[in-house]
């Protein structure tokens, strides 16, 4: 997939990551929540940000899932995760793992109804 910029040039996703193909950390899943740190820790770090890093920080002013972020950026999730690793290591974002909805066992009555409904299809 190519990413177009306003000037009409095309940038390959691996160019956005400096040729890296694997994230430096394993903190991110598709449903991990990412939020920008406010205020940013250091203005010198901001000067080294790529435009994609800046876009991520802007989008993450409110917590956002990694999959949603990749969709909004129109970039592969693997590329977004590498860029997120850069920002996490620079102290520019926080990441939270998915929260469990319930620690109780599943509602067996509800599961039975779902199974029955699927069986009728």
Task: Write up what this structure looks like.
The strands form two sheets. The protein has a three-stranded antiparallel β-sheet with strand order 4-3-5. Strands 1-2 form a two-stranded antiparallel sheet. The radius of gyration is 19 Å and the shape is elongated. Helix 4 crosses helix 5 (77-89). Helices cover 43% and strands 12% of the residues. It has six helices and five strands; from the N terminus they run E-E-H-E-H-H-E-H-H-E-H. It has helices at residues 13-16, 43-47, 51-59, 66-73, 77-89, 108-120, and strands at 3-4, 10-11, 33-36, 64-65, 93-96. The model has no long low-confidence stretch (mean pLDDT 81). The protein has 121 residues and is an alpha+beta fold. A hairpin with a 5-residue loop joins strand 1 (3-4) and strand 2 (10-11). The longest helix is centred in the C-terminal third of the chain and has 13 residues, at 77-89.
Show unreliable segments: none
What's the main sheet like?
3 strands, antiparallel
Assign the structural class, choosing from mainly alpha, mainly beta, alpha/beta, alpha+beta, or little secondary structure: alpha+beta
| Beta fraction | 5-15%
Q: Distance between termini?
A: 37 Å
């Amino acid at each position: 997939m190519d990413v177009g910029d306003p000037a009409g040039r095309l940038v390959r996703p691996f160019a956005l990551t400096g040729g890296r193909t694997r994230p430096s950390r394993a903190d991110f899943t598709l449903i991990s929540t990412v939020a920008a740190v406010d205020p940013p820790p250091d203005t010198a770090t901001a000067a080294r940000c790529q435009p994609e890093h800046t876009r991520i920080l802007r989008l993450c002013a409110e917590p956002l899932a990694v999959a949603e972020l990749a969709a909004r950026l129109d970039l592969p999730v693997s590329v977004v995760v590498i860029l997120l690793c850069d920002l996490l290591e620079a102290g520019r974002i926080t990441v939270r793992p998915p929260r469990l909805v319930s620690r109780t066992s599943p509602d067996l009555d509800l599961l039975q109804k779902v199974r029955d409904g699927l069986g009728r299809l």
